[in-house]
Specification:
With 283 residues, the protein is an alpha+beta fold. It has three domains: 2-87, no CATH class; 90-180, no CATH class; 194-276, Ribonuclease H-like superfamily/Ribonuclease H (Nucleotidyltransferase, domain 5), CATH 3.30.420. It is built from six helices and nine strands; from the N terminus they run αββββααααββββαβ. It has helices at residues 2-12, 90-100, 130-142, 150-156, 165-180, 240-264; strands at 52-55, 60-63, 69-75, 80-87, 186-189, 196-203, 214-221, 224-232, 275-276. Helix 2 (90-100) runs antiparallel to helix 3 and helix 3 (130-142) runs parallel beside helix 5. The model is unreliable at 11-17, 36-47 and 55-81 (pLDDT under 50).
Length: 283
């Protein structure tokens, strides 16, 4: 033990003989380390590191630095149990809000205005589309942990070539929605059911320029959202039933792939996977 203390002292210029906490220097690895010292628990790292303080009495994690992954733990004096995982981009969201210059703006309840269609010819062109493309690109990255804005971001990304002032206002509305929900993310609970479920929907003729529909579906493994998609359909649909069938067909392709993946991971699905849709004519 004294040998390792001397090594740390020489390398990091710090006398670690003054404490008895576990000392780690790990890069690009996410892990959980239990500490037997019930009075003090300290983990130190650089500014870009993900650092957590797990209090064994409070049974929760106090986030010391902003990070991408947050692991909530239940800690006992001798055992450490992982109970849930929350994926979020809290700091990235605040950086995006600052990039748009909307720190003092009022939040809104929805990413898009209700019953509003956006066209490629609405309003005047932006003199410089750079900021629009930067904001939309950042929002696309944010959808990794924010599926609730996937449809809105997918819609706004269709105007990257020639964005207009109305489109920029819609993008800023999405960011104003994030102001009120900066800490939302994807939640994974331990001991959840491993039954696969799917939901699909379609926005029939939602594009005013091409009259093409939009496919949307999401996949749940128990209570956990594991896959989702929002994409404009390639072909025109003559009815809402046809557009719903196309969305359900796309969802079925994902179901087949996920069932095979789960089977390879030794979690085979014993029963058929239910696919839920909200169109009576398609059902």
């Amino acid at each position: 033990m004294h040998f390792y203390m001397e090594i740390f002292k020489k390398r990091f210029i710090c006398d670690f003989r003054l404490g008895y906490n576990l000392i780690l220097k790990i890069m690009y690895v996410v892990f959980v380390v239990p500490c037997m010292d019930l009075n003090k628990l300290h983990m130190h790292g650089s500014k870009n590191s993900a650092i957590f303080f797990a209090h064994w009495i409070l049974s929760r994690v106090i986030m010391i630095l902003q990070c991408f992954f947050i692991i909530l733990l239940l800690v006992s004096p001798f055992f450490l149990f992982m109970s849930m995982i929350l994926l979020l981009q809290h700091k990235y969201t605040h950086d995006l809000i600052a990039l748009a210059g909307l720190e003092n703006s009022t939040p809104v309840d929805t990413p898009l205005e209700v019953n509003v269609k956006y066209s490629q010819t609405d309003g005047d062109l932006l003199p410089d589309p750079t900021i629009y493309r930067r904001l939309v690109g950042s929002l696309i990255y944010l959808t990794i942990t924010r599926p609730d804005i996937s449809y809105a971001v997918n819609l706004m990304s269709q105007f990257m070539h020639q964005p207009r002032h109305l489109h920029l206002a819609a993008v800023k509305r999405i960011i104003r929605y994030l102001i009120g929900t900066p800490s939302r993310g994807i939640f994974y609970k331990a001991h959840s059911s491993l039954i696969l479920q799917a939901y699909s929907d379609a926005d029939w003729a939602g594009c005013p320029d091409t009259r093409r529909s939009t496919t949307g579906w999401c996949m749940y493994l128990g209570d956990a959202l594991i896959s989702w998609k929002c994409q404009k359909q390639r072909k025109l649909s003559k009815s809402s039933t046809e557009s719903e069938y196309r969305a359900m067909s796309s969802a079925c392709s994902e179901i087949v792939w996920l069932r095979r993946l789960l089977s390879e991971l030794v979690f085979p699905q014993a029963d058929p996977t239910p696919l839920y849709a909200d169109n009576m004519s398609a059902i």
